[in-house]
Predict the 3D structure of the following.
Amino acid sequence: MRPAPKEPAYQGTMNRGLSARKPGLDRGDRSRSGSLGPKPAEKRYRYYDEDEDEDEEDYDSEGSSDMEAGIFDVDKEEEMALRIARKEDEEALREEEELKRKKAERKKMLERMNSQAKKKKAY
């Protein structure tokens, strides 16, 4: 009869000693950011009040932003846009009236030519 086989000496690395370790200390159990632990609240927000005061000082300054427009600037721009729109409307109306006048002249000329052609046929 054969002797009983020995257990292999190589145990592998995958499940080696999991029960011997403390929970939470395994490398796969934590993320990199959590390895340092959460910061205390007082250190996290210690500069918050100072930054808030600085922002409020510059809020109303004239040179703070070129993108902001005052109400007078907006009104001025709207008035200018209205003037331009009226001018364009007047030009379009004049052009339309001119085209109507030319069409009426052509129509009269064709009617005259038609009546002259009828007179010549009658002879």
